[in-house]
Amino acid sequence: MLGHKVGDNGQILALAEGLGWPYEVKHLVYKKTELLTNLLAGPTLMGLVRERSSPLEPPWPELVISAGRRNEPLVRWIQREAGGPGKVRLVHVGRPWARHECFDLIVTTPQYRLPEKPNILHNEAPLHRVTAARLAEAKARFASRFGHLPRPRIAVILGGHAGPYSMDRENGAVLGWHAARRAREAGGSLLVTSSARTPNKAVDALEGEIDVPAFLYRFRRDDPDNPYLGILAWADELIVTCDSMSMLAEAIATGKPVFIFDLARGRGSRRPPVPPSVRRRTLLERLADIRLQPIAYRLGMLVGPKRLTRDVGIIHRRQVAAGRAVWLGDPWPPPVPPPGPLLDLERAVAAVKRLFDPDRVPRASVPQAGSLGSELLARLFQ
User: Which of 81, 127, 190, 191 could be 231's S-S partner, Cβ–Cβ 3.0 to 4.6 Å?
Assistant: First the structure.
């Protein structure tokens, strides 16, 4: 069940491919009013733009894999139409808004801080599709583009605004300066790629600081020649902005040194120093950069229910502690012993396959949607 978020879709496809079973992809488009129906209704298609979405009709599948709030009413509707729990198994990736018992399996990650329950699998990082085979294929495909660049080749992978983080001009320039210095001192080069969320002004600022051999790709949606996998394959080490857990997991999957660039400022920030040559934000830029999302995030972390917040710092700290990544500016330590690879996909595949074991313990009956008030309260404070 694919929606509008690239990260969610990648996790869904990674799990579907990992299972090795025949599957069908459904592309979904949602109404602007879907938040209201998602919060207040139970299983429903009221939030779906049917004429622009894949048809949802029999024959019903045995398994539905979804992610994201918008898909939850749809998959619960499919299960109800197919005859209820046991007829169609529901697997949700990430954090659901509906009651946890509405799903046969929830594959989650630490930032959501979900409770320990029999139907919740706690993984270390998001699922992804970066495999040794895909990296080998990408390395061969992009050999003519990257092979001539001097080593070490340092990948710089840019995210964007997310939660408390702002990918603004100053952060782009600071990252560009430190990445270029790292490549220059080692006699190497940079392989830079932006993403769908990266503001142009941040890319421009980063590009203005590069004074070493480099390749820079500006993200284009649905570009068949997107070099992202090639950059992962050809890089000797990688720098990833801290906002995206999916990009961090994909970088770690290469088995190469990974450096996290902290976009946060002020107390507790691990961002490397702002060099004298980088122009700091002016007052007008500060005002222009004000966004409601970081304010709402910090307020939610202070007073909001844990059900509605996420703390990606948990993943940062765990991966640094495990020796799979360090903050940009810190030295790369030789791990003793070397950290093992993340096995999140293997664990998720095994958990899904256990759902179809005839000897498994039956899941408790799914509570039906109650009154609007009780359904909403359950979603907020579960």
Answer: 191
In a domain, 1, yes or no: no
Sequence letter at residue 97: W
Same domain, 241 and 331: yes
Question: What is the C-alpha to C-alpha distance for residues 88 and 84, in angstroms, rounded to an integer?
Answer: 7
| pLDDT for residue 171 | 96
| Model confidence band, residue 303 (pLDDT cutoffs 50, 70, 90) | low
- In a shared domain, residues 138 and 185: yes
pLDDT tens string 167-218: 999 999 999 999 999 999 999 999 999 999 999 999 999 999 999 999 999 9
- Which burial class, exposed, middle or buried, applies to 213 when counting CB atoms under 10 A from its CB (0-12, 13-18, 19+)? middle
Which tokens is 276 given?
């004298």
Buried b (16+ CB within 10 A) or exposed e, 127-158: bbbbeeeebeebbeebeebbeebeebbbbbbb
Does residue 215 share a domain with residue 161? yes
Indicate whether 363 belongs to any domain.
Answer: yes
pTM: 0.87
Task: Round to whole Å and give the CA distance between 302 and 54.
Answer: 40
